[in-house]
Amino acid sequence: MRGGGRILDLIKEVLQTSFRLFPWPTEPGLRRIGRPDRSSPVLLTGNYDLSVRRLLRVLEGHDAWLLVAPSGGINVWCAAAGGQLTTHQVVTALKTSGVADQVDHRRVILPQLAATGVLALDVFRRTRWSLRFGPVHMRDLPAYLASQEKTDAMRRVLFPLVDRLQMAVMWAAPIMLVLGGAALWLKPDWVLPLGLLIASMSVAVFTLYDRLGTARRGGLATASVAASVAATVLAGGSGLAIGAAVLAPTLLTALLTFDYTGSTPLEGGSHFEERKWSITLDTERCEGVYRCWEVCPEACFEKREEVRKVELAHDERCIRCGACVVQCPEDALFFQDESGARIEPDVIRRYKLNLLGQRSIEAG
């Protein structure tokens, strides 16, 4: 039975990694990790099945309560930014799950990337639960729980090779399914070379694209077309095959790079309407609560404890996620453009992003 469970878990891992563009919901509710008691920590995450299963593996051997809140089966960062995981979902989960009957404290730890949608101060006002944002990456949770301190490394989003390859798989799998199915029907002998082209281009885009400079899209398209045509000619392909070898890499480059930045933690999405806005700090209003420092995934802020302020020391890193704006209790942060026009904090808190990066979804 245990071996069968591992096989099923592996199948789920492969499917959910390959098709993570789609929701994968799991049952919300309160779960035990290990043998938790009344003093054990309470963790909260969304009901994205892949994340929940990985979280359970990371915390194997620990004792904790895991509260799974409804997030539409979407990962925490996307759900928080898109309005599926908000203050309302967290408050409801805390009030209805029965977790308050299981512990003597009132402290809950959320993933840091939930800070774009969940307002800690409002959660406290409505439930009397104190909310802390844990590490960006769940692999750091054991160390965080042991020390109760979040290091600088735990606060910052990275894009290492393993994450890049997962994103490549995420895009390659559905494209292969659609184009490979069409090729199987129209030209079965093209299925294998087309699959190899999709796989290789997906890996190339997510491992190299952001390092290629300003002409990256044209350079990538040119290189991929040249390699595809050369391979087709060497294989003795017909004129039709050579034409396809020119067209397919060009279309794939356009598709894979259409919103590359929106698929990565490198910067705001290419269709994100706030690309023209910059984060602005009103130092007069800042009172050194340091929530912005705690939740910024790019470590844009530095503490100035001698004056009890923060400094926007690395604004060039900002990806305009809005987490700092949402969490600042003094409304000292906002978006502003070159003309001086502003997007006020209440707008960022109230309206979340649709798939085109427009603030049109009203948070529940």
Spell out the blueprint of helices and strands:
Elements: H1 2-18, E1 29-33, E2 42-46, H2 49-58, E3 64-69, H3 76-82, H4 87-96, E4 107-110, H5 120-127, E5 130-133, H6 141-147, H7 152-155, H8 161-186, H9 191-208, H10 216-234, H11 239-257, E6 278-281, H12 291-295, E7 301-304, E8 309-312, H13 323-327, E9 333-336, E10 342-343, H14 345-350, E11 351-353, E12 359-362
Parallel strand pairs: 2-3, 2-4, 4-5
Antiparallel strand pairs: 1-3, 6-9, 7-8, 9-10, 11-12
Helix pairs in contact: 4-5, 8-9, 9-11, 10-11
Tally of extended strands? 12
Q: What name does the CATH topology of the largest domain carry?
A: Rossmann fold
- Element pattern in H and E: HEEHEHHEHEHHHHHHEHEEHEEHEE
Number of domains: 3
Mean pLDDT: 89
Percent helix, as a range, is 40-55%
* CATH class group of the largest domain: Alpha Beta
Number of discrete helical segments: 14
Strand order of the largest sheet: 1-3-2-4-5
Radius of gyration: 23 Å
Mass-distribution shape:
globular
Tell me the fraction of residues in β-strands, as a range: 5-15%
CATH architecture group name of the largest domain:
3-Layer(aba) Sandwich
- SS-based class: alpha/beta
Largest sheet, in brief, is: 5 strands, mixed
Ends apart, CA distance between termini:
42 Å
